[in-house]
Write a structure and sequence with these properties.
Layout lengths: L12 H12 L6 E2 L8 E2 L8 H14 L2 H26 L4 H12 L2 H6 L11 H17 L4 H5 L1 H11 L3 H22 L4 H26 L26 H4 L4 H10 L12 H12 L20 H15 L6 H6 L11 H27 L1 H19 L6 H10 L2 H20 L3 E5 L20 H4 L8 E2 L8 H11 L6 H7 L5 E5 L5 H14 L2 E5 L3 E5 L16 E2 L22 E4 L3 E6 L8 E8 L11 E5 L2 E6 L8 E7 L9 E8 L4 E2 L10 E13 L3
Parallel strand pairs: 3-4, 3-5
Antiparallel strand pairs: 1-2, 5-7, 6-7, 8-17, 9-17, 10-15, 11-14, 11-17, 12-13, 12-15, 16-17
Length: about 700
């Protein structure tokens, strides 16, 4: 593979490249105003508990000074780390050295790695899984020798716990599950309760390292936990034991259940490849015919892969139950956070346990071949068979990075993207552009695609910009922040006089970068007409992006139309100025949802006198017939309390805003808060389960005394 060519450029790979780019701007790796302008990109919501992986990428990127080279070196090194951890752990179970080489290769290139290394790259660094198993024989030896203190002094156990705890919350969680399950299984098999405190030691040590990291990010980023997903939907995903299990449907086994499962597949996460056909079949056979595996030979037997075979078989069954719909996967989402469908993350643990069971079976297969074909021919046949099985199981990951690079370079979209990025950056340099508004506006961290455009692609020009650049990009502003909301409002009223001028005067934007993929031909023509009419100049145009330079001249007209009712109905003039807390528009206007509704008032051209704000509103009465009063705040300052006389009847309410609360530029935030919170709509219509605040139909602004 070539180190200077990316293996992937879009999707979740952007996060790996983004972190590499921020690493070059050290120490601005958590919060930076280079992106997310007019605020700043906040990455505290990311799961930075995967410290060892980020440290590795930090070193590769900083040492090379190149985002792509650093990312590629990181990917190569995590393959080596996965291989080394698996080899080291397999040797800990007394497996032959060259078998360990084959097993480590199979583990480092399970199909799960192929899928994760093109997206969730930090999850592809799953070396924590074999390290969790490496601890098991050492604990078994200590328990059988009745020397639990040995565990606390064992440097291998201590090192493994620290690495696991700093490798991320997902693999730490599954390591804790592995130890807990193994402790219970061994205690039951050997009737020895000492396994429970013995397994509790590595679990406790891991938590001692992990919890402070979690607490740190919970303290510094309590309101930025990313996009939550419902815990109830988590257990529906992750049940794919290769394609072997799906073949049961062809035989008529559990046909309806599998059809229901197939309806889920492909709709969202949960379709990652598992360890591959060989290990998956081996695990299924072990679960079905575990009795044929060799049992332990007594309490004094060596803690090798054969002696612990019953525990591993039971663990494989546990993994299957865990990943089944409505299975134990719900534990993660209830105890940790319902943000990620975590069932797939147990795949590396499943794979390593399956490897240990496989070698237990393979040892008997080798002895059988040697007894039938002779020691030499049987051994050679077994060797060829083992190599073939390893390659079959790893077929999904062969020539992984080089193949990805070749496939990427053959894509016309990749060539167009790179050409567009280079031309846009060169044009921005030539024109001296420093503050770039990226259209369409989209909130960080997750926004839905817009036509053929994925909002994460807004990061690509920044990622390929030179380290230490003073250029600022708008994408990355957090959803719900005032900066983003006001920017979206300006873009929404771009057809109003002076709206585009406000971008230059109040927000210091000197350029607009439009991604063509989000607009059709008519919309692009409309933006070109607005911008050129304002005096903007097109400085770069390619099949992917357009870059305009904004003029520095101001505008003397007021931004907000005065003495005219602005409608809050669908498509009404007021719609872009409605901030957080509103349901989608209805023909007559909008209902406020939740406890507080916000709208924005553009300040340009309002003058120095008091303003009269007329609201055409209606309200619901609660089940007792009471209509709640509505508190009105201007930038969090309470200025009035209004109340409707009759429920569900349009009424006009008048509010006077003193000039001291109106800045010369930007926006003023108006908050409407019903006392007692929203009212269930079911008090009017039984089938409506919404919680409604105020109903806003229209708004009018006048200068006082006119």
């Amino acid at each position: 593979m070539r180190l200077d060519v990316p293996t992937n450029l879009w999707g979740d790979r952007i996060f790996l490249l983004l972190h590499g780019r921020l690493f070059l701007d050290w120490p601005h790796i958590f919060r930076t105003d280079a992106v997310g302008f007019p605020d700043g990109l906040d990455l505290f919501g990311f799961p930075f508990t995967d410290f060892t992986e980020r440290l590795l990428q930090f070193l590769t990127t900083r040492l090379t000074g190149d985002v792509i080279v650093g990312a590629n070196l990181y990917l190569i090194l995590i393959v080596a780390a996965n291989f080394a951890a698996a080899f080291w752990a397999l040797r800990g179970f007394q497996i032959r050295a060259w078998w360990c080489l084959a097993g480590a290769f199979a583990f480092a290139f399970i199909p799960y790695f192929a899928r994760r290394s093109t997206g969730h790259d930090y999850l592809a660094a799953y070396y924590a899984a074999p390290l969790a198993f490496l601890i098991l024989p050492r604990i078994v030896t200590a328990v059988r020798d009745q020397s639990l203190a040995r565990i606390a002094k064992d440097p291998v156990t201590l090192a493994c716990c620290v690495i696991i705890a700093t490798s991320g919350i997902y693999y730490s969680f599954f390591a804790l599950l592995t130890w807990g399950f193994a402790g219970l299984a061994l205690a039951a098999q050997e009737r020895n309760w000492r396994y429970l405190p013995a397994m509790a030691f590595p679990a406790g040590l891991t938590l001692v390292v992990l919890v402070p990291i979690l607490v740190f990010f919970a303290v510094v980023a309590p309101d930025n936990a990313g996009t939550a997903r419902l815990a109830a939907e988590q257990p529906l995903y992750g049940f794919r034991i290769s394609d072997v299990i799906l073949r049961l449907q062809q035989l008529g086994v559990a046909r309806n259940a599998l059809q229901n499962y197939m309806a889920i597949r492909g709709t969202t996460e949960g379709v990652d490849a598992w360890p591959g056909p060989v290990l998956s079949v081996c695990a299924l056979l072990a679960a079905l015919f575990g009795a044929v595996m060799p049992r332990r030979r007594g309490p004094g037997a060596r803690p090798d892969y054969e002696g612990l075979a019953p525990t591993f078989i039971a663990y494989l069954v546990f993994c299957m139950i865990y990943c089944a719909p409505f299975g134990l996967g719900l534990i993660f989402n209830l105890l940790i956070a319902p943000e990620i469908r975590a069932q797939n993350r147990i795949a590396p643990f499943f794979a390593f346990a399956a490897l240990l069971v496989f070698f237990g079976l393979w040892r008997h297969a080798v002895l059988w071949l040697q007894s039938r074909l002779g020691r030499s021919i049987g051994g050679m046949t077994a060797t060829v068979g083992l190599v073939a099985l390893v390659l079959i199981n790893s077929a999904g990951s062969q020539a992984l990075f080089a193949g990805q690079q070749r496939a990427l370079q053959r894509q016309p979209a990749f060539a167009a993207e790179m050409t567009s990025i280079r031309s846009a950056l060169a044009a921005a340099d030539a024109a001296g552009l420093q503050w770039i508004l990226q259209l369409p506006t989209a909130p960080w961290p997750e926004a839905p695609p817009i036509r053929d455009f994925k909002p994460y692609d807004h990061f690509l020009p920044f990622i390929f910009s030179p380290p230490g650049s003073s250029r600022h990009w708008s994408y990355g502003a957090l959803e719900g922040t005032d900066g983003l909301s006001r920017l979206e409002a300006l873009v929404g009223i771009a057809t109003w006089p002076c709206a585009l001028a406000e971008l230059s005067s109040s927000y210091n934007f000197d350029a607009v970068l439009i991604d063509r993929r989000a607009y059709d031909a008519g919309e692009l023509a409309a933006w070109d007409s607005r911008l050129t009419a304002f005096g903007a100049r097109l400085v770069n145009d390619d099949p992917v992006r357009r870059l305009y330079r904004l003029p520095t001249s101001g505008c003397s007209q007021p931004l907000l139309p005065l003495d005219r009712w602005l409608s809050a109905a669908a498509g009404g003039e007021l719609e872009p100025l409605l901030h957080r807390g509103w349901y989608p528009p209805e023909p007559w206007g909008r209902w406020g949802m939740g406890a507080t509704q916000r709208l924005l008032l553009p300040n340009r051209g309002l003058g120095g006198r008091s303003l009269v704000l007329d609201l055409r509103m209606m309200q619901l009465a609660d089940k007792h017939g009471r209509i709640p009063r509505v508190e009105v705040r201007i930038d969090q300052t309470l200025i009035a309390t209004i109340s409707a006389a009759r429920p569900m009847q349009p009424e006009e309410q008048r509010i006077v805003i003193p000039p001291t609360l109106l800045p010369q530029t930007g926006f003023t935030t108006i908050e409407l808060t019903p006392e007692g919170g929203p009212i269930p709509a079911s008090s009017v219509s039984p089938e409506d389960n919404r919680l409604l605040g105020v109903g806003l139909m229209a708004l009018r602004v006048q200068e006082a005394g006119r």
